[in-house]
Amino acid sequence: MSQNKVWLITGCSTGFGRVLAEQAIQAGYRVVVTARQLEAIADLAKDREDRVLALPLDVTQPEQIQAAVQHTLTHFGSIDVLVNNAGIGYFSSVEESVEEETRKMFEINFWGLMHMTNAVLPHMRNQRSGHIINFSSIGGLASFPTLGYYHATKYAVEGISESLAQEVAPFNIHVSLIEPSSFRTDWAGRSSVKTSSSIAEYQSFMDMIVTPDAAGKEPGDPQKAAEAVLQIVESDKPPLRLLLGNAAYAAATHKLNTLLQSIEEWKEVTQNADFKE
After folding, report:
1. Which of 21, 113, 185, 217 could form a disulfide with 84 if both were Cys (CB 3.0 to 4.6 A apart)?
2. 136 belongs to the catalytic site
3. Ramachandran angles phi, psi of 126, nearest 5°
4. Confidence of residue 202 (pLDDT cuts 50, 70, 90)
5. How confident is the model over 34-59, as pLDDT tens digits?
6. pTM for the predicted model, two decimal places
7. pLDDT tens across 128-187, in order?
8. What CATH number is attached to the domain comprising 179?
9. Is the pLDDT of residue 2 over 90?
10. Is-catalytic flag, 155?
11. 183-205 mean pLDDT
12. Which DSSP string do the residues of the chain spell out, in sequence order?
């Protein structure tokens, strides 16, 4: 393992970000931990200031992004692993979704991720190495009711990450999408917004997906997820996509099998759409 690698992780106050930061620090890496409120992550750097740097960072504020990247480069001299973890969720039927809330989510989940990526890429290109870890979701591959706009942010992350991976491969820069199912983080709690349903026909979907009693009982283990991320960072051939959790595997394979079945069913119509030469 190359312990000289410098990690820059967003959203380290809770959830995946904090657990991943703790494991990267324990493994001996140099780590920059960030969060909107510095006091929420100060303990991660305490008595480790030689290799852990805590910085305030709101990914919706471009000037804070630039300052965090520059501070990291000044302090450690490089950025080898960027983990775009900061994100929020949103529960509502598509029809009842509040535009102000969905735009806020796009600013964090998509634009914040891309502004971070674009701020780090010039350095990674110059050093001809790097690894960008984008936290997506199984919701970036398969969709469920009441999560339409959340899915939209994650599908956007998936699409742009695929393009980016091809563009930066010649510079020895890897891009990996992390696609978890339900894990015991606070994603469905304080990290999500819920708009209650006033249309009776949609209420059953909200009752099915938004289940407060399930909080703290999710099957996914954040510690094991963090271990998996460390594993791909040290791999010579890291995957573009890393599914995490049995439910993620089941949802992804069901989606792919259903998609292939539909493609084959309509194959003749599809192929007849071209000009006849």
Report:
1. 113
2. yes
3. -65, -35
4. confident
5. 999 999 999 999 999 899 999 999 99
6. 0.92
7. 999 999 999 999 999 999 999 999 999 999 999 999 999 999 999 999 999 998 776 665
8. 3.40.50.720
9. no
10. no
11. 69
12. --TT-EEEES--SSHHHHHHHHHHHHTT-EEEEEESSGGGTHHHHTT-TTTEEEEE--TT-HHHHHHHHHHHHHHHS---EEEE----EEEB-TTT--HHHHHHHHIIIIIIHHHHHHHHHHHHHHHT-EEEEEE--GGGTS--TTBHHHHHHHHHHHHHHHHHHHHHGGGTEEEEEEEE-SBSSSTTTTTEEE----SHHHHHHHHHH--GGGTT--SB-HHHHHHHHHHHHT-SS--SEEEESHHHHHHHHHHHHHHHHHHHHTHHHHHTTS---
For residue 276, being part of any structural domain is answered with: no
Candidate list 5, 97, 154, 182, residue with the active-site label: 154
201 falls within a domain: yes
Number of domains in the chain: 1
Domain interval for residue 206: 6-246
The verdict on residue 263 lying in a domain is: no
Reply yes or no on whether 217 is catalytic: no
Choosing from 93, 136, 181, 182, the catalytic residue is 136
The answer to whether residue 83 sits within a structural domain is: yes
Band (pLDDT 50/70/90 cuts) for residue 92 is: very high
